[in-house]
Amino acid sequence: MNLLLHMCCAPCSIFIVDDLIEQGIKFEGLFYNPNIQPIEEFKRRCDNVKILSEQKDFNVSYDDKFMQNEWESFGGSEQERCTMCYQIRMDKVAEFAKENGFTAFTTSLLISPYQQHDLIIELCEKAAKKYGVQFYYKDYRQSFRLGQQMARDAGLYRQKYCGCILSYENRGK
After folding, report:
1. Cα separation of 48 and 35, whole Å?
2. Are strands 104-107 and 2-6 parallel, antiparallel or unpaired?
3. Whose CA is closest to 7, among 54, 45, 64?
4. Alpha-carbon span 14 to 48, nearest angstrom
5. How far is CA 49 from CA 7, 19, 55, 72, 118, in A?
6. Residue 81 — pLDDT band, cuts 50, 70, 90?
7. Extents of the domains making up the chain
8. Which has the closest alpha carbon to 53: 100, 3, 14?
9. Quick one: CA torsion of 18, 61, 51, 138, rounded to 10 degrees?
10. SS3 of 76, please?
11. Which fold is adopted by the domain 2-170?
12. Mean pLDDT, residues 28-51
């Protein structure tokens, strides 16, 4: 298998990266997160994915698309916003996997107990079918705290909110 790992951030990716290495799975990363705002946060998360890729010695592709206007002007419910956010990213990841010769893709979003796990699976499966690549599923949620500790130990930045401007404004509430 030649796997593409969508990386939402370094702390959510670090455990998964180690697991893939340990399993001997050939993989590369993709940082595609146009939902992350403000731009300083986007850059900080991107920079920390670069640090992780250097520490663990694997390749990452970066797409610097930034969609703050789309999130600020989105008039739907929180559930609709989250669905849009996951769908935009998983469609892009599956398309990138297909166009670049990967046989499968997965996402670091699968480690977080704070994400909508079942919805992510559903949207990944739809994107996999649409683009003709396999969705590699593994439930990493039981390793979330360990991954966070690994990120802390590695000196990686650990954010306090999901990523979009609305979750930024609601953090700590």
Report:
1. 17
2. parallel
3. 45
4. 11
5. 8, 16, 10, 25, 25
6. confident
7. 2-170
8. 14
9. -20
10. coil
11. Rossmann fold (3.40.50)
12. 92
